[in-house]
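Hi both,

Apologies for the delay on this - the queue was longer than expected. I finally got the magnesium ion-bound model through. Below you'll find the protein sequence and the ligand SMILES exactly as submitted, and right after that the C-alpha cells for the full complex including the ligand.
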Amino acid sequence: MINKLRLENFRNYEKELILLTTGINVFFGLNGQGKTNVLEAIYYLLTGKSYRVQRDQELIRWGQTNFHIYGEFNVAQRPIFLESHYLNKRKIIKINQVACRKLSDYVGTINVVYFSPDDLFMIKGGPSERRRFLDFHIAQRRPSYIGLINTYNKIIHQKAALLKTNVSVSLKIEQLRLWNEQLFIIGKKIIMNRSEIINRLNNISYNIYEMLSNQKEKMNIGYVSMGQEELEKSISKFSELLEDKIMSEIDRQIILVGPHRDDLRISLDNKLARNYASQGQQRSLVLSLKLAELEIMKEEKGEYPLLLLDDVLSELDSFRREYLVEFINLSSIQTLMTLSSADEPQVKANSKFKVHQGQIRRVY
Ligand SMILES: Nc1ncnc2c1ncn2[C@@H]1O[C@H](COP(=O)(O)OP(=O)(O)OP(=O)(O)O)[C@@H](O)[C@H]1O
Ligand SMILES: [Mg+2]
C-alpha cells in the first residue's frame, strides 16, 4: 500500500504532502482542481510514464523547470521508497535511494491498475489502444516483456526502412526474408504472451461483468492475430503470411504481417461492443477488464495492486456502483478514487480529501 505521497512542482501542485490510508481514499472537488493530477503522479511514480501525455515536460508546474514525486509504500510488510525526478530534462528514478538504469528494473516493483475515462477508447478506439492495455498488463507482471517489445519495434523499424530503400527487388526480397526470420521468432513470443493473458482475463472478466450487470449481460474478449482467433491457427499462419505478403509489402511500403497489427475483440452478448454497447456498458466492460487485472496480479503476487479510479462512477447505474464499491471493500483493496462530490452515498471511504486549486486537505 501507499502510505505517503509528496509532490513538488508536479502539474498544479507546488508542494503537497498526502498521508493515505487503507481501503478507499476519496479525492473530491470541483472540475480542474487537481484530482486527476494526484492519480497521474502516482501512476507516473510507479511506471515512469504518464497515462495522459507523451512528454514529461508537460507535467512540470508552469514556470518551473523540474518536478519531483516521492512515495512511501509497504509491500509484503516491507517498506519501499520510490522517487521520480524530472531534472534538467532528464528522468531519474530510484528505488530505496538507488537509481535504476532501465525502466524494466523499476516497473512492477509496485503494481498498479488505473481506470481513466480515456480508457473508454479501448472500446471505441483503434486496435493500438487495446494492444497498449495488454502489453502494459504483461509488462507489469513480467518486466522482461518490455525488452521483447523493444526488440520487436526495432525489427519493425529496420524492416520499414528497408522497404523504403532503393535497392533492387531481388535484393530486397532476400533481406526482407532475413528480417522476417527475426520478426517471426520475437513476434511469436509476443503472441504467446498476449494469448495467455487474454484467456485469463476473459475468464475472470466474464464473471465480474456478469455480477456487475446483475446477471443480465455477458461479456467476452478474444485475441485476433493474423486474422485468426485461435492461437494455433494464428501461429501456423504467421510464417506463411510473412512469405506471401513480401511483394505487397514492397509495393505498399508498409509491414502487413505481425503482432503489431493484433487486436482484442471485446463483445457484449456476442455482439461487437464498439458498435452496440451503451456508454454505461462500455464503462462496465473496461471496468471488468481492470478488475480482472487486479485479480490476476493478486493471484501471482499474493497482494492486490494499488487501484486508481478516476471518475469511474459516472454513467454507472446504482446497482453497478454498489457492486463496485462492495467489490473493493470486501477485498480490502487500497483504492484512490476521484469524485466530483463528497457525498456519494454508495462509497464507504476510509478517508476523504478535498482538492481545491492544487491544495489537498483531509476532511475525514
Ligand atoms: N503543467 C501544469 N502546471 C500547472 N497547472 C497545470 C499543469 N497541467 C495542468 N494544470 C492544471 O491542472 C488542472 C487540471 O487538473 P486535473 O485534471 O487534476 O483536474 P480535476 O480535478 O481532475 O478536474 P475534473 O473534475 O474536471 O476531472 C487544470 O486547472 C490545469 O490548468
Ligand atoms: Mg479529473
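Main takeaway for now: DSSP finds ten helices and 15 strands in the chain.

I'll put the files on the shared drive as well.

H.
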